[in-house]
Amino acid sequence: MAWAVAAAGLATGLAVGTKSTAVAMAAGLTLAVIVLAPAGRRWAAAGWWFIPALLGGGYWYLRNLIVAGNPLPQATSLGPISLPHPERLQEGRPDFSIVHYATDTGIWRHYFEPGLHQAFGALWPLVIAGAVVGGLLALFRARDSVLRWMGAVALLGLIAYLFTPLSAAGAQGAPVGFGINIRYAIPPLLLGLTLLPLAPRHLQGRREWALLVLLLAVLAITDRSDAALRDPARTFGLALAFLLVVVPAVLVWCSRRSASGPSLLPGGGVAGGAAPEEALATGRGGGSPAATGPAGPGAWSLGFAALALLVIAIGYPLQRHYLNDRFASGSEVPGLNLESAYVWARDKSDTRIGLAGTTAGFLQYGFYGTDLSNRVIYLGKKGPHGAYNAIPTCAAFRTAVNAADLDYVVTTPFLNFIHTGNPIASPEAGWLRNDQAATPIKRDGPTTIWRINGKLDPSACGPANAPLRRIPDTA
């Protein structure tokens, strides 16, 4: 049981370390683990839970605390109390929550309902209601305390989602980020729907399975899962599902059947000549207890090993195919002019690439190359509480390029992510233009790739190299 708690703690830590939106559910699970632990074992349970959780997700929070003075730097205040946080040069979208628009019927009609329909299909109210009812039934009618606590955690996660910043991201009155950020609600929704057939006391056996099948049918119809049957890649997808879902399920089922009792001979007797009652009582059937079924544990272990080898044999070339083709089509975000730069970076290995402008800063993943060997450096200057600000002058920028010992520099605009059609110009391209050591080799709109042939000359910045004056405003 201790290892199960450790595995759950590690998974929770990884979730929290990946997305801070998982903090509320992680806190609920932590409280549940401590409360549900047997008397006298709570400190041990806390250790088995917290240590893997901290190893899985504590690094970034500890780093933020040291660098910014705040484990969650995006939380700028706690009520009237201002918290330490870096001043960000630019944010993608204003971070409104769903509660901010709770009574705005126009927002529900034009943004929330279409977003929920796209995420969960025409029967989206049934999906949400099922998760809420599942949480409530588990909390008030579950057969054991574990299910009751899981119901509380599901409801806590759903409530926290309503108050989560960026759950209704976008300019005031236009939460365009609501649809894509519904993903923040997926964990509590899944937990609530999972609890729905498990929580009621009167549901047992076939009724429980019937309700589960009904829920699966509703989800399949709601999400139009049948579209997968018309997808061009359906043959491979079905084969992969059979390999990764059906085959393991059959192996597990067979192994349990084989371990559940002695091997019966065709005549109704038991192997080894012992009476059935004696064999069942003693576990003897003419052989070792490990060979009590049609096949011993060793046979099923070989089956799982063969399955693992088959998955590796199929998965490795698929992984290589993905790694070789990633970033081939450039950024999928329209209007950012990074397509050519991404394609250019695919052929680079062990190259030092500097980035200027928040467009490249937000989307720098494409510059690491297909083998991830490039060293990508965003050019800026450190500010208070972990801030990383734009370099304001030509001389300071050229000095930073020299200090980074770069092979190339990619200059992009300070793009306003709310109004992508109105980019705010960035002066770095002009600061490089008159230096003999910087040669432009590729342009795509406001994006330029420069080859750095030697040391730039900070003293050669003249009056034409004006300092940075305008900074994006996302308010």
Distinctive features:
475 residues, alpha/beta, 4 domains, five-stranded mixed β-sheet, two-stranded antiparallel sheet, 48% helix, globular
3D structure, described in words:
The chain has 15 helices and nine strands. Strand 1 and strand 2 form a beta hairpin. The longest helix has 29 residues. It folds into four domains: 88 residues, no CATH class; 139 residues, no CATH class; 63 residues; 122 residues, 3-Layer(aba) Sandwich (D-Maltodextrin-Binding Protein, domain 2). Helix 2 runs antiparallel to helix 3, helix 5 crosses helix 7 and helix 9 packs antiparallel against helix 11. By secondary structure, the protein is an alpha/beta fold.
Q: TL;DR of this structure?
A:
Helix content is 48%, strand content 7%. With 475 residues, the chain is an alpha/beta fold.
**Which consecutive residue ranges, at least 5 long each, have pLDDT under 50?**
263-294
Can you count the beta strands?
9
Pattern of helices and strands: HHHEEHHHHHHHHHEHEEEHEHEE
Q: What would you call the shape?
A: globular
Query: N-to-C terminal Cα separation, in Å?
Result: 50 Å
- List the strand order in the largest sheet: 4-3-7-9-8
> Main sheet?
5 strands, mixed
**Helical content (DSSP H or I, runs of 4+):** 40-55%
